[in-house]
Amino acid sequence: MISLYIYPSRKDAGSCATRLAIGAGLLITGVLVVVIVVLPLAVLQPAGYIAMSGLQCSSDPAAQQAQSSGYAEDSIPQNYLELYKEWGDEKGVPWNILAGVGQVESKHGRWDGPGITEGHNDWGAAGPMQFGALDGSAAGNSWGGEPIMDVEDRPEEGYGQDGNDDGIVNVYDPEDAIPAAADYLIAHGIKQDVRSAIFAYNHADWYVDDVLEWAEQYADGDFNPSGSIATAVECTVNAQGAPIGEAPDEYSQAVVDWALAQRGKPYVYGATGPDTFDCSGLTMKAYASIGASIPRISQNQWTFGPEIQQGEEQPGDLVFFDVSTPGEPDGPGHVGMVIGDGLMVEAWCTDCGPVATREYDDPSRADIIGFTRPLEHPDVKAQLEQQNP
């Protein structure tokens, strides 16, 4: 069930935690439905919105579609299977992940519960892909407008669309709902982080696991959903083919190179290396690699400063996000290191994949509080001068 809001917390906590979400699950004849209560991080995106990435260093792995298994051919209704494949190709997302969502949400439209072919379920979700389609409900209205409406009545907000060009935007029609689900996953970063995009669709870790398990069953042969994460880990050039992480001076270059070299290592809350990191542990150790001491946790790294105006950030600077956790100090609970081109290297959260390169000014992320440049702090300058008198 698509929620109105984006990216609540995962399993991380403390100095690098994201916002908390509260979920309750109900198991009904094999279909799982979750009520999500989250703190709003963003408004609905406009129709057709796609998060653009500054990181396109190899062919898009999501566009390399898996062949359908015999099980998929036998168990998915033919019209749904054709639509998953059609829109997977069209949108450049794995068709079998779309199919996994369709199975978990509605058994490809075959579940006889409320809200699949008409009306809404108890939380305001509707249609085979279970979009929030009721203003004021727990699921909100991520579809936008009425569940069934003429194209000309389609509001700017939401993901509903006329996929079959019949002039009607219909949440109950798989020809409209499946491409809308693909757009939702794209807008929530599936081409950069598969698990997080599915988590945004329905805020529960079991949901992500279920969707990926079905996707694997539907694929003929091995299916690796983490290909986009591998790209973010291995990438060395930006969307224009220029090298990423080119810093303006020797010290900045050294901390950027060190942080990028940690990509692929797991996130572990409280870890400061050498094999695992949390967000502020990564940035602290990057500066320690050149003999510079900065505070341990993100809140204190923020106040350490000095602050840099957005638009003036450069590789080696730190970027801070408006996330917090009860019981933690005031201030931003997440930090990454700027590497240029709108990109950062970060240790994000337990279920967000390994240390990787991602965009920081991304509408699917928490708001940016600001940037700092630790190399301009007087204490750091003194430490570096002592090393090189």
List the helices and strands and how they pair.
Layout: E1 21-28, E2 31-38, H1 70-75, H2 78-91, H3 95-106, E3 125-126, E4 131-132, E5 148-150, E6 168-170, H4 174-187, H5 194-201, H6 205-218, H7 227-234, H8 250-261, H9 279-288, H10 298-304, E7 307-308, E8 318-321, E9 334-340, E10 343-346, E11 356-359, E12 368-372, H11 378-387
Antiparallel strand pairs: 1-2, 3-4, 5-6, 7-12, 8-9, 8-12, 9-10, 10-11
Helix pairs in contact: 2-3, 2-4, 3-6, 4-5, 5-6, 8-9
Description:
The protein is α+β, with helices and mostly antiparallel strands. It has 2 domains: 14-230, Lysozyme (Orthogonal Bundle), CATH 1.10.530; 236-387, endopeptidase fold (from Nostoc punctiforme), CATH 3.90.1720. The protein has 11 helices and 12 strands. The protein has helices spanning 70-75, 78-91, 95-106, 174-187, 194-201, 205-218, 227-234, 250-261, 279-288, 298-304, 378-387, and strands at 21-28, 31-38, 125-126, 131-132, 148-150, 168-170, 307-308, 318-321, 334-340, 343-346, 356-359, 368-372. The strands form 4 sheets. A 6-stranded antiparallel β-sheet has the order 7-12-8-9-10-11. A two-stranded antiparallel ribbon has the order 1-2. Strands 3-4 form a two-stranded antiparallel ribbon. A hairpin with a 2-residue loop joins strand 9 (334-340) and strand 10. The termini are far apart.
